[in-house]
Structure prediction request, 95 residues.
Amino acid sequence: VKWKERTGGCMCGVFQDACGKCGGDSTSCLGCDGKPMSGKVFDQCGQCDGDNSQCLGCDGVVNSGKKFDLCGVCDGGNAARDVCGICGGDGSSCT
Prediction:
């Protein structure tokens, strides 16, 4: 039966999109870069084809929000600073 003839795996008059889908609009295989079949995806930071480094905390955990304080302590809250603002100081340098 002629109406069942297929062209490129699709029914006659229907074409394959860039993703290989009959009658598709090429969006089912888009990467985050907008290109069909690129394989690119968003990382956990929301960066296209990223490596999660843009939102990595100082503790090595993605999206932890932890940062190094002024004394270089991860999530330390500057607790190692004395009253004079010196890391590891004893407070005597400003008295």
Residues 1-6 have pLDDT under 50 and may be disordered. Residues 80 and 88 are 5 Å apart (CA to CA). The radius of gyration is 28 Å. The beta strands are 6-7, 10-11.
